[in-house]
Recover the amino acids of this structure.
């Protein structure tokens, strides 16, 4: 047999099945085939592009009413999609199996109460078995299916339909419903459209090939087996369908047989069951059934699904005349199955899935009306019956679940409550000390589907953009969020009192009773002592915050203690440590980091005049300034430019600039540009400019110079908004005579600050000293100093002008601020031109001013810097600071004068002066290998900078091209220039020590991080007794998890997200941060809490009792099973202490564009150590950063995917410096599992508060009033008034 014949045989016999494989009984159909005339007329007009009527095939169609319905039907219509070469409602056709859904239609009409107006089918293909191998999921067949479903929806006026597909009809219908774009060939694509999942009540997949067919593996030359849109196991269309999280319907069921004679191989393809639709709620196996038996012999199951388990498929809640059909299934099912179903019903209430109290009543009364609420059902055949008693009260709904114990007639009653009907999901609270009956299998019952569609088909949905576990953005449907309540919505104006607020709420919380319970509850509010890390953290918070009445977790970090006040300095770029191991095909590597390595340099005296000479020699006309210019919205391009010298010519677009004076560069200071001036190290004068030989190749010399340059002065320009006063002071234009903002004199201020300095204590050490005793003595001395500071502060004499009442102080501040903003504070004698002064005066009254900010920095080669002696380092640092001094104090004013004049004169003025900047095209230049440079070990004296070399050009060169200048938008010249002090860099480059350790049976890398002894934060000195080797106090385990384990964990987290969006967990479990676009909202960050949660947002911390239990609450769901299993594994392998973790938080950064602001893991709440597991992709943890963590950082710790980070107890990293997650340290989806222990005294207070204060208050808000305001919204409104 030839290979072609073999392929055809596989295509026809195996993929489709021939008559010889079928057992058709030859019965003649009795149904009235064809569309009704009314429906035929409608569907033809609905979309004439596709032939739905199929007059060329006998018995090809079925369905329709005599006259088109005017209202929605009592039950959802059913649409059937047949298989390859089949006929929609056939009667035998060419071969016996071409009967389509005839038998099922007959059965549903006879036994299910359905009519022709409820059942619809057409024939989408040629219905010719000889053409079976030529049929694929083509645009024609997919769109025919799609438009037919939409046509039935339009004709019947139903909100949803049920879709039943068989064989190839399963995957055709899936593509039609889910939508998207697919390929038919390498060059042909088609788009189906948006998903119509919301219009599909249920999807039944009968014997489909969802993962392809084994027999198509090597028959890809046939259209049916195509790798684009056929049944090849590697089919692009099937892969796309199976990777999407979009469901085919609200409920999805799969029916299959391991004896399928067409699909064969027990339905296994690549170790997956190809007959089960991915994400099915349930799958039903019928052993012994053939491919067409699955289609024709499932009547009992269909009746059960349509009438009992899916009773909700009736648009009005179900026709009661269908209820007797339930008995048919009950007789069919065994006792164990019924018992399991019964327990599932109860359990959905126990564990709290998406049901509010109205939905609960509907579920019980309509979907299970054989369940009598007044009299418990006859459950003698059940081993452990559960009874439900539903109580309706004026302000709430209660459920009692009564469980009779086996040993006696005593009853264990577990009371639950459900929140207001305005919230999508319920909250259940256990108010008794009783435990749940041990016979209830929480995990297995939780995983079993339940027909909750009955209570959800009237819900509204909205589009939500989420990021999958493969970093793909998709849109899903989630229950619509209720609109946030506002004071305006409650008809309240201005700032009402709390009493007025609650009077406007119809179901207001009983806040007076709440406060009464709280007052007599004896709750502890002060947790500031008793645990050493608490005391450490307090010492490193801003002393100014000690007397403020804000929540302790929002107190600022003392930047003074970090010696991190940034200014211009010397930095180097460090290559990225990120590998994105196993996911580098999904995520980009993290960007390189910048370290301002001069943070440890010492001031150097006696060199000011020498550096002035060097400055004028390099930048004021005595030598050439060689520089490049390129676009850079941030520092990412600049870092690449500095890190890879061989790419510099390419990044600068193959052109190098030259100028004689720095002052001449005024016209190219523009937003989003980066200017890099290049130098080499010189043994005689520290920095050496280029010395051109104009007789040789100028291009080659310039490219060689910039590629070999080890030292660069970089200026990054960005449009920004700056403080007006700070700007005027920076350029010497602030009128000091009008500066009344300071009440204390400088002498008074310095005296006060001196008294508030906490020095590093000297602890006596003897032979009997231990680390613990040293630390205790050290803590005692520090506490004494802190008490002295606070006492001194209280005794400090404040000037008489400041001794006013609190309200008068506020008024005084407002008046002072108004004076600063309204007066003319610009100096007229500061060297500014008339145009510049007029612009600044025009800006009077504005607190801020639009500027072109300049970030000036010297960059060096990392290797050279680390090998240089301290003398060279100090000189380079001192020189760049001298450069900044000259630029800010003299050059910026002159440059702004020129810019404002040019803006007034116009383009011709700029063109005439552009000839002072030369541009050399450096295309087609060979990039040579860098020469070996000299070491930076020379010793310099001021005399080295007296007789410096000079150079002058003898030729004229091409002026700078005008495409660099925004000639059409000269308004940029009116932006004042401002040198900023913020830096996107870190001060301390940590030393990393890697050792091999064994955790359980796994050998992993342990990473420990250390400061350099001569370059560490000044407040680290107090930690030396406990960390004498300068340990940061954080270590990480890398390589503990396998890639397969990480993939499974990431899958669990993604499924957890989807459940959170769907309201699956208790309300405060998932706290979601949204970003709104024109058509939908997207998720930026989600924070999950399990076990216990803590209050962290500004609004939450403003609640009246936010300090109770240190802001800890227990109104969240318990950790899922996979989390508990993970903790057990970590405990067994000695990664975390046993019985230590009682709270798990999961921070999910969906697209990596929103990070987490700097914060302490407050020791008041958390016992240390604290563990973090990083998943999805590589990330970094930044310490000591400012401005939401974007800049001026202290140091960073790498967090590769799968690592476990431990913040050690009492350490510097955990207690003396805040940490954050910067958006720039993520390249896509990232998540952290944070494993912590909350102090027992805190959790006990949380339990007490929740049970006796918060719970009764919450229950007092339960109401059936349609205008009721949810409890959570009431708390938010109250907090907004109090904040």
């Amino acid at each position: 047999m030839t290979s072609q014949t073999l392929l055809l045989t596989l295509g026809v016999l195996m993929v489709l099945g021939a008559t010889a494989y079928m057992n058709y009984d030859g019965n003649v159909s009795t149904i009235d085939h064809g569309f009704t005339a009314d429906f035929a007329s409608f569907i033809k007009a609905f979309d004439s592009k596709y032939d739905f009527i199929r007059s060329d095939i006998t018995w090809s169609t079925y369905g329709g009413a005599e006259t088109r319905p005017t209202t929605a039907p009592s039950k959802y219509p059913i649409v059937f999609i047949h298989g390859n070469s089949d006929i929609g409602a056939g009667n035998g056709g060419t071969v016996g199996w071409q009967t389509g859904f005839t038998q099922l239609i007959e059965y549903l009409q006879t036994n299910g109460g359905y009519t022709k107006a409820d059942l619809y089918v057409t024939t989408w293909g040629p219905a010719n078995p000889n053409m079976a191998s030529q049929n694929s999921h083509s645009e024609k067949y997919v769109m025919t299916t799609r438009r037919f479903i939409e046509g039935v929806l339009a004709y019947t006026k139903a909100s949803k339909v049920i879709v039943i597909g068989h064989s190839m009809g399963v995957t055709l219908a899936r593509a039609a419903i889910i939508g998207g774009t697919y390929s038919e060939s390498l060059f042909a694509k088609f788009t189906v459209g948006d998903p119509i999942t919301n219009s599909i009540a249920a999807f039944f997949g009968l014997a489909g090939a969802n993962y392809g067919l084994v027999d198509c593996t090597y028959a890809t030359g046939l259209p049916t087996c195509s790798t684009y849109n056929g049944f090849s196991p590697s089919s692009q269309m099937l892969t796309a369908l199976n990777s999407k999280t979009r469901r085919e319907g609200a409920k999805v069921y799969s029916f299959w047989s391991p004896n399928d004679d067409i699909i064969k191989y027990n339905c296994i393809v690549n170790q997956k069951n190809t007959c089960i639709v991915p994400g099915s709620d349930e799958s039903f196996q019928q052993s012994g059934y053939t491919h067409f038996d699955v289609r024709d012999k499932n009547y009992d199951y269909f009746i059960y699904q349509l009438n009992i388990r899916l009773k909700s498929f009736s648009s009005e809640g179900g026709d009661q005349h269908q209820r007797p059909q339930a008995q048919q299934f009950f007789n069919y099912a065994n006792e164990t199955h019924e018992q399991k179903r019964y327990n599932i019903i109860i359990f959905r209430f126990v564990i709290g899935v998406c049901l509010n109290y109205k939905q609960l009543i509907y579920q019980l009364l309509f979907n299970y009306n054989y369940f009598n609420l007044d009299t418990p059902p006859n459950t003698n055949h059940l081993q452990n019956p559960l009874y439900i008693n539903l109580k309706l009260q004026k302000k709430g709904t209660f459920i009692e679940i009564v469980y009779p114990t086996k040993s006696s007639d005593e009853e264990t009653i577990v009371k639950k409550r459900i929140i207001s009907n305005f919230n999508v999901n319920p909250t259940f609270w256990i108010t008794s000390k009783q435990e749940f009956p041990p016979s209830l299998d929480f995990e297995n019952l939780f995983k079993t589907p339940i027909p909750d569609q009955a209570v959800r088909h009237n819900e509204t949905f909205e589009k939500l953009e989420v990021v999958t576990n493969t970093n793909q953005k998709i849109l899903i449907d989630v229950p619509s969020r209720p609109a946030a309540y506002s004071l305006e919505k409650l008809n309240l104006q201005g700032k009402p009192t709390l009493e007025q607020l609650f009077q406007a709420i119809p179901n207001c919380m009983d806040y007076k009773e709440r406060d009464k319970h709280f007052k007599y509850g004896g709750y502890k509010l002060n947790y500031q002592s008793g645990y050493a890390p608490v005391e450490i953290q307090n010492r490193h918070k801003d002393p100014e915050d000690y007397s403020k009445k804000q929540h302790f977790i929002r107190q600022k970090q003392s930047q003074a203690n970090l010696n991190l006040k940034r200014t211009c300095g010397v930095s180097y770029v460090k290559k990225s440590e990120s590998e994105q191991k196993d996911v580098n095909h999904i995520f980009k590597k993290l960007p390189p980091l910048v370290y301002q390595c001069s943070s440890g340099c010492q001031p150097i005296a006696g060199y000011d005049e020498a550096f002035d000479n060097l400055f004028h020699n390099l930048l004021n006309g005595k030598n050439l300034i060689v520089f490049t210019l390129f676009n850079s919205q941030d520092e990412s391009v600049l870092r690449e430019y500095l890190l890879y010298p061989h790419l510099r010519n390419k990044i600068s677009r193959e052109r190098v600039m030259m100028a004689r004076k720095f002052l001449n560069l005024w016209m190219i200071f523009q937003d989003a540009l980066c200017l890099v001036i290049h130098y080499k190290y010189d043994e005689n004068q520290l920095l050496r400019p280029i010395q051109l030989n104009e007789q040789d190749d100028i291009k080659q010399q310039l490219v060689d110079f910039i590629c070999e340059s080890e030292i660069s002065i970089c200026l990054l320009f960005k449009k920004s908004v700056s403080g007006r006063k700070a700007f005027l002071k920076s350029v010497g234009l602030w009128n000091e005579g009008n500066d009344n903002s300071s009440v204390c004199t400088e002498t008074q201020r310095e005296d006060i600050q001196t008294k508030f300095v906490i020095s590093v204590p000297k602890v006596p050490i003897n032979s009997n000293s231990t680390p613990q005793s040293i630390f205790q003595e050290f803590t005692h001395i520090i506490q004494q100093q802190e008490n002295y500071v606070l006492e001194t502060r209280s005794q400090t004499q404040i000037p008489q002008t400041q001794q006013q009442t609190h309200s008068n102080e506020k008024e005084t501040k407002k008046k002072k601020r108004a004076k600063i903003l309204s007066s003319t504070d610009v100096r007229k004698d500061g060297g500014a031109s008339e145009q510049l002064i007029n612009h600044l005066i025009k800006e009077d009254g504005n607190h801020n001013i639009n500027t072109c900010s300049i970030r000036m920095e010297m960059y060096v080669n990392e290797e050279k810097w680390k090998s240089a002696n301290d003398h060279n380092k100090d000189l380079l640092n001192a020189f760049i600071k001298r450069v900044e001094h000259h630029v800010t104090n003299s050059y910026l004013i002159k440059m702004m004068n020129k810019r404002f004049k040019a803006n007034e004169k116009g383009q011709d003025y700029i063109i005439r002066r552009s000839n002072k900047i030369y541009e050399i095209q450096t295309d087609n230049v060979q990039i040579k290998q860098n020469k070996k440079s000299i070491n930076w070990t020379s010793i310099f004296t001021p005399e080295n900078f007296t007789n410096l070399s000079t150079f002058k050009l003898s030729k004229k060169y091409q002026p700078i091209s005008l495409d660099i200048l925004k000639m059409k938008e000269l308004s940029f010249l009116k932006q004042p220039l401002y040198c900023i002090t913020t830096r996107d860099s870190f001060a301390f480059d940590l030393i990393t020590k890697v050792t091999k350790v064994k955790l359980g049976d796994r050998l992993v890398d342990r990473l420990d991080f250390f400061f350099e002894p001569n370059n560490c934060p000044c407040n680290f000195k107090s930690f030396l007794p406990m960390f004498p080797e300068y340990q940061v106090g954080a270590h990480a385990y890398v390589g503990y998890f396998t890639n397969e384990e990480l993939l499974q964990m990431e899958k669990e987290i993604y499924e957890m997200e989807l459940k959170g969006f769907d309201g699956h967990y208790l309300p405060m479990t998932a706290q979601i941060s949204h970003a709104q676009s024109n058509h939908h909202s997207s998720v930026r960050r989600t924070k999950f809490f399990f076990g216990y949660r803590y209050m962290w947002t500004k609004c939450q911390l403003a609640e009246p009792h936010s300090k109770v239990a240190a802001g800890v609450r227990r109104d969240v769901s318990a950790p899922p099973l996979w989390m508990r299993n993970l903790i057990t594994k970590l405990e067994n392998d000695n990664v975390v202490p046993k019985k230590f973790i009682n709270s798990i938080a999961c921070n999910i950064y969906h697209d990596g564009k929103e990070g987490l602001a700097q914060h302490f893991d407050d020791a008041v709440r958390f016992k240390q150590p604290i563990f973090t597991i990083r998943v999805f992709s590589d990330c970094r943890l930044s310490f000591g950063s400012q401005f939401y963590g974007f800049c001026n950082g202290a140091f960073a710790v790498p967090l590769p995917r799968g690592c476990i980070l431990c913040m050690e107890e009492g350490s510097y990293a955990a207690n003396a410096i805040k940490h954050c997650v910067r958006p720039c340290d993520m390249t896509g989806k990232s998540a952290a599992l944070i494993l912590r222990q909350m102090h027992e005294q805190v959790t006990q207070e949380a339990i007490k508060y929740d049970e006796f204060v918060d719970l009764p208050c919450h229950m007092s808000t339960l109401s059936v009033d349609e205008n009721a305001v949810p409890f959570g919204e009431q708390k938010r409104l109250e907090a907004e008034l109090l904040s």
